[in-house]
Amino acid sequence: MAEPAPQRAYRAACPGCGAPVEFRSAQSTHAVCAYCQSTVARMGETLSRVGKMAELFDDHSPLQLQASGTWRGKGFTLVGRLQYRYAEGSWTEWHAVLEDGSSAFLSEDNGAYVFSTAVEIGRELPEAERFRVGSTTAIQGKSYSVASNNQVALLSAQGELPRLPVQGQWFAMVELRSQDAGNAGHAAAEVLSIDYGCKPATASSGRSVLLDELKLTGLRDESVKNENARQFSCPNCGAQLTPLLASSKTMSCNACHSVIDLSQGIGAELKHALQDEPVMPLIPLGSQGAMQGVLWQVVGFQHRMGSEPNDPDEQFGWEEYLLYNARRGFIFLVDSTEGWSVVQPCTGAPTLSADQQSASYRGNRYQLKESYNAETSYVAGEFYWQVSRGQKTWNRDFVNGKNLLSMEQSAQEITWSSGSQIDSDLIARTFKLEEKKDLLKRSDVGPFSAAKSISVGAMIVLVLLLLLVLILLGRCSSCDPATQNCTSGAGTRTSGGSYGGYSSGGGHK
After folding, report:
1. Could you say which of 33, 213, 295, 301 would form a disulfide bridge with 281 (CB–CB 3.0 to 4.6 Å)?
2. Residue range 252-261: average pLDDT?
3. pTM
């Protein structure tokens, strides 16, 4: 069915090139000319040219201007786009005009999507510095966890917008997340964003959505535009490279294994870092397979190391594959000694207990399994955030049977992820790796244990102590020379148990 024409619209010639610029919503104050990229400000019936926007750095999303859908029974059309940058990458917000003329935003959220609308707080919001990452706060009587507090800047804009921050000018953006009120599918968690790019600060409230739920039409067919134009030479060895996703901020060179920073766009000076000891992923980059009823493509890979806070010499490792689907966004496939698991970032904020030994999420309680420092030791492929060797986070893993809940914390952000274990045979079938079936198997495939894993050093000590006890028992055996009848002291026997359940880590993301 054809999209109904707007009841009222304003159209005028661009003061930069003369092309027609149309305002579909009375709330819109700015637009970006589709022909010359001039920023146009609307003052009543007059258009004035403010400046010229930078070229858009196209992302992975299938969204585009004039795509339309339905949200809570109301039709909407995407008429504008804002792209922001921060220290570790960028994200995009799409301006949606609903059929009643009101505005909303469809935003990227850790590889997924959030649909949000403006909210009136009713009082002046605290300064950004008051929101400490990891703390809790209450706004309008509702409890939130402070998930991030970043300095951001407008990178580029397109189409029709309700307002426009000054390009390149940094300002604070704080993100708060509420708890899920019950089981999955009931009272979904809320994301409350506070934008300090204007005075006074504004707030918007959103909830996680799937693109299919919005019944979108007019999406672009491919997530890559002008792929040939994005080829470039590796700044270290000169090999020709082509990013698969236009949004990638980091990729590695297949020839010399350098990690290349793409965050400034191709054409700028590309930073790179050599990786001397390449790690070969068991699942090749570019592999595709259907899992959970969705076709996923492996686009990124990283090897990470964990260490005990009180004993940094005791380390363990695991691997993470970044999987992409145009309509679902991103998920992670994690390979650890305790088995394979599929996880994805949470929209809501799980609730930590007072002693922080457990966490509740969507009506389920998870027990703390491990707390550790994590560091990225090797990367390959592409990522939707900027990844580099040496990146460090503070992690905590919580478990409930075969389900897991993980927290990663940096100075500016906390990310929660949830998921569950899957069988290695499914991995082999999904990515057509039957010949690697034995390599994909893991010794520990039972439910996650909330007991703290034994470190390698502790394991060695236990083995040495056991040997010492056996030696001492042998020396203390009673022997009757007359009868030549020897019995070991106290009739002891060795345990029939094994250390097969030992794990030096596992289940991390």
Report:
1. 301
2. 80
3. 0.64
